[in-house]
Amino acid sequence: MALDIETRNQLIETVRRFVRERLVPIEAQVAANDEVPAEIVQEMRELGLFGLSIPEEYGGLGLTMEEEVLVCLELGQTSPAFRSVIGTTVGIGSQGIVMFGNDEQKAEWLPKLASGEAISSFCLTEPEAGSDAASVRTTAIPDGNEYVLNGTKRYITNANRASVLTVMARSDPATPGAKGISSFVIPVDTPGITIGKPEAKMGQAGAHICDVVFDDCRVPRSCLLGEEGQGFKVAMQVLDRGRIHIASVCTGVAERLIRESVQYAREREQFGQAIGEFQLIQAMLADSQTECFAARSMVMETARQYDEGASGVSMNASSCKLFASEMVGRVADRAVQVFGGAGYVTDYGIERFYRDVRIFRLYEGTSQIQQIVIARNLLRNLEV
Hints:
The protein has 384 residues and is an alpha+beta fold.
């Protein structure tokens, strides 16, 4: 159920103040140390940020998609590494349990996830499977009352912090493609699971990705999420919500970059006047604002459609993810151009955002995968 307007506005203002007063001042520190301070993570717990999308009955805030988007627009106003701390728990790491979990799974994990006591990760990508999600090779072979998992998952966000994993694995190796895949909810401390060291990355220092290796990892049948062979469906439905979430974050980051660019254009002088007086600078600012406004409008409308259970949300979620992630890349590039040499050095932080936003076009479905999803939906819909 949606929050009343006053409560919603209070929540958004609280997050906005937290971002402005606590997160923005330590962006450079987090980038230098590759770590979000523990006290900041604790404050996120106290604000309820880990439980944004988890139902109230399990201790979460139970926000609608529209409300979650409004919060993410504020979280996007700072380094994306901060949002990543809660991102997998709010989105792809918990929503499989919310949507498909049985009563026992929900009771065991959702209260812990909502409070931030536990962090979750989503294990789909592999060395040979990412965009082609149906080619998952990690196996989960039934053996009596257990499944035995073997394989490697790659680039798993927050794996080194996680307490529980949502894992996609092939439970029926004889069935190729999506139909042979099942989904599992597995505690990280289960014997046979090894978490690799965090990867060095282009951007988003402070947000960590690791390999997760399963070596004869035995889990009880109670870890099965949904029905056997339903894993691909779980993944795709979870990603629909996740793509709207990511698109809103992209839009928030773009708004921050535009604000920084406008301020710099007002202050920086060349040829005896502020560079903002030059039409070519104005054109870059105008293009960025126009595209950002379009992204915000798309995301808000799609979030409302999601909450209403409207048809076509999967295509629109992909449209949002495609447009917003490509948009923020263009806005970041223009921001560097407006700042000139200052945009290329670390002191101003613009080059850091330029690197940080590049991942948005890759994870939770590359831009090319979004194009395929959109096109296939169009071709299936004879009324278009």
